[in-house]
Design a protein that fits this description.
Elements: H1 6-22, H2 28-62, H3 71-102, E1 105-108, H4 115-129, E2 136-137, E3 153-160, E4 165-172, E5 181-187, E6 190-195, H5 196-201, H6 204-207, E7 216-225, H7 239-250, E8 255-261, H8 266-275, E9 283-287, H9 326-332, E10 335-339, H10 345-356, E11 360-367, H11 375-385, E12 389-394, H12 402-414, E13 418-421, E14 427-428, E15 431-439, E16 442-450, E17 462-469, H13 472-486, E18 498-500, H14 503-520, E19 526-531, H15 537-548, E20 552-557, E21 574-579, E22 584-585, E23 588-592, E24 599-603, H16 609-613, E25 615-621, H17 625-639, E26 645-647, H18 666-675
Helix pairs in contact: 1-2, 1-3, 2-3, 10-11, 14-15, 17-18
């Protein structure tokens, strides 16, 4: 049956982010930040997915048998879509600027400064900016210095009257050291902001003061490079060293995309393309005056409080708050923590408690991404110093966090933590903690299975679930997963957890079959999935099959979805929505069946081939009826969303879900639901 190409579906997801920037129901500053998220997403898309497609194109040209879904056709479609979205982006940006002006907030450039503002900008430039600038004179350089794909450059041209020669220079805008936005002194209650780019433009005569020139022309450009890691097969070199070596290669990856100010003279564009060795067929995109809009994710809070989202203060967990010890609390009852709605600090508290508790013997953790000032790391180091055995499984191939994870691996090793590094080609994406402790003479275990990373920063903006339990059927199998990670060549059996690779795909097929069999025996069959991505060909086909045989299927997919609901022959048999709001939907939940036969899992895995076949992922069943109800209520609220939900369809229209007797904004409504939730003490 027909499906949507994953790259094209991803671009449709990013268009939903752009919709959020357009949406007048969102506060103005938040809309500006959505432009930053859109831009950041697109950068990563080019660095990873477009890089892969380019490699496939090269392979296809060499191959005698062209591929069915031609990479070149996909690349052409990407190029057309990105150009269309960039134009839409420019329109949205200009509209937001006008709306900000109505609020007394003006974004001005270097030509619009009054005398007082000129003085302020000059003083800021001299004290803060100028010491960070490194102008590169490029006209006579035989070889250009390395240009980073995470940088924004100002291309400056001017005539040196001394020898009547045209000079060219690159200046990297120091946006990593300084904010991209300089807030100027208020004037009559109005607020003014100037970009760092324009602060430099206003002072070009000072930057190039050794030349005899008074007429400078400047335009911004940026490049995007291939960010795929090429890890060689040299068995002599350890995997740690291979990743380290590959990161150095990434920094010099092949250019993939060139974006420039469309007002740049054509001769300057061609000069840059020649010097950067970029061919005409590459993704060369004319843009507006400013680039690297991902900086807009940090657009400053200016103006009244109505211009930003009202912050929902993380709730206290009604059950955990009644206990001094989290370990004691979980021994009485399984616990779910929903963050950012509830406080992620409970997970940190659990590790800090385990680090100092006299009854705890060991702690095992899987690490994929961490905050730069991680309290998780501090708790683990503290545990070692308190005589606990600590084992940390750290994934060195967590994309764009490889360098940070190399650093953490060294830090933990130096402190005496036992480090297990992921196996090449088998990423460890599961979110596990296993704490072994003694209660009297009895040896017990507490397990954490989660959908999100142990990252204090993303826990404030990613919607995730942590599941805590001492159930032996779960904890024994979590322990088995750690054994499997350490020795993946050994076989392991799992009766409760769904573990990939090998086992999760088989289990999911079996669970789908059960629902088909229910329908064929005259009963109701039902599947409800909440995932970030649904693209695995086999799983998509199995859902089509189930839907066509009468199983009712509800899908909540944040990002990429290859499945087209209209392809199901049973009208309304499959419904699919995407929710995009202030928090990034990151929770994965799989529900099969209804009532007493219901089976429910939370998981770290999406329904992608890489998650099912090339990663170590875990899905844990939720057996506790109270917790099942809590998750079902959460999913029901999401399915009823008629404010931030969009339909999936074959046209990728991103049409908003409408209707209902009252507006339901699922993230806000679920926060209200949790705020009213009472503590349940039953075991």
């Amino acid at each position: 049956m027909k499906t949507i190409n994953r790259e094209i579906s991803w671009l449709s997801f990013n268009e939903r982010v752009l919709q959020e920037a357009e949406d007048s129901r969102n506060p103005l500053v938040e809309r500006m930040r959505f432009l930053g998220i859109f831009s950041n997403n697109l950068d990563e898309f080019f660095r990873v997915r477009v890089a892969t497609i380019r490699r496939l194109i090269k392979f296809e040209r060499k191959s005698q048998n062209p591929m069915d879904d031609s990479p070149q056709r996909v690349m052409n479609h990407i190029h057309e879509t990105v150009l269309r979205q960039q134009k839409r982006f420019a329109v949205v940006y200009k509209h937001i600027i006008k709306e900000l002006e109505k609020e007394g907030i003006y974004i001005i450039n270097e030509t619009q400064l009054n005398k007082e503002q000129q003085k302020f900008v000059k003083e800021f430039f001299t004290s803060k900016v100028e010491p960070l600038l490194v102008p590169i004179m490029v006209r006579k350089l035989k070889k250009l210095p390395y240009l980073s794909d995470d940088a924004t450059y100002l291309f400056v041209s001017f005539l040196d009257k001394t020898n009547n020669e045209k000079e060219y220079s690159f200046i990297e805008i120091p946006r990593k050291s300084l904010s991209r936005f300089l807030q100027l002194p208020d004037i009559k209650g109005n607020k003014y902001i100037i970009y760092l780019d324009d602060v430099i433009r206003a002072n070009l005569s000072r930057v190039f003061r050794i030349f005899d020139s008074d007429n400078f022309e400047s335009h911004v450009f940026k490049i995007t490079r291939d960010a795929e890691l090429d890890i060689d097969d040299d068995i002599v070199v350890g995997f740690y060293d291979k990743v380290k070596k590959s990161l150095e290669k990434r920094k010099k990856g092949e250019p993939l995309r060139f974006i420039y100010d469309k007002s740049m003279p054509e001769e300057h564009v061609q000069f840059l393309l020649r010097r950067l060795s970029l061919a005409e067929e590459e993704n060369i995109i004319p843009g507006e005056r400013y680039h690297n809009f991902k900086d807009f994710m940090k657009f400053p809070n200016v103006g009244s409080s109505k211009l930003v989202n009202k912050r929902l203060k993380p709730l206290k967990h009604p059950y955990l708050e009644k206990h001094r010890s989290i370990i004691d609390a979980v021994q009485k009852k399984d616990v779910l923590v929903h963050y950012p709605y509830q406080n992620f600090d409970y997970i940190i508290d659990l590790l800090q408690e385990a680090a100092i508790s006299s009854k705890v013997r060991s702690i095992k953790v899987t690490i994929y991404r961490l905050a730069s000032d991680s309290k998780i790391i501090n708790a683990l180091i503290n545990a070692v110093k308190n005589g606990k055995e600590v084992v940390v499984v750290i994934e060195l191939q967590a994309r764009f966090d490889e360098e940070a994870n190399l650093k953490w691996a060294k830090t933990l090793t130096d402190e005496g933590v036992k480090i297990i590094i992921s196996t090449p080609g088998l990423k460890i994406h599961s979110k596990l903690i296993l704490i072994e402790f003694k209660e009297g003479k009895e040896r017990k275990k507490l397990a954490h299975v989660g959908t999100g990373n142990f990252h204090e920063g993303t826990a404030n903006v990613y919607s995730d679930i942590s599941y805590l339990t001492v159930r032996p059927d779960i904890t024994n199998e979590v322990e088995r997963v750690f054994g499997f990670i350490e020795k993946p060549y050994l076989t392991a059996r799992f009766e409760h957890l769904l573990v990939s690779p090998r086992y999760m795909r088989i289990a999911l097929n079996r669970l789908i079959d059960e629902q088909i069999e229910r329908v064929q025996s005259g009963k109701e069959g039902y599947i409800l999935l909440k995932v970030n991505s649904l693209v695995d060909p086999e799983m998509v086909e199995r859902l089509y099959e189930a839907g066509n045989k009468g199983v009712k299927i509800d899908l909540i997919v944040r990002g990429i979805c290859s499945l087209i609901p209209e392809e199901c022959k049973v009208k309304g048999g499959i419904t699919a929505i995407s929710i995009l709001d202030k928090y990034l939907e990151h929770t994965r939940v799989f529900v099969f069946g209804k009532g007493s036969s219901r089976k429910m899992y939370i998981s770290s895995a999406d329904w992608m081939t890489r998650n099912l076949d090339r990663r170590i992922e875990v899905a844990s069943p939720i057996y506790d009826k109270d917790l099942q109800k809590e998750i079902l209520d959460f999913l029901s609220i999401q399915l009823e969303d008629n404010v931030k939900a969009r339909y999936f369809d074959g046209n990728m229209s991103n049409r908003y879900v409408e209707g209902g007797s009252k507006p339901i904004r699922s993230q806000v409504d679920f926060y209200e639901y949790l705020s009213k939730l009472k503590s349940i003490e039953t075991t």
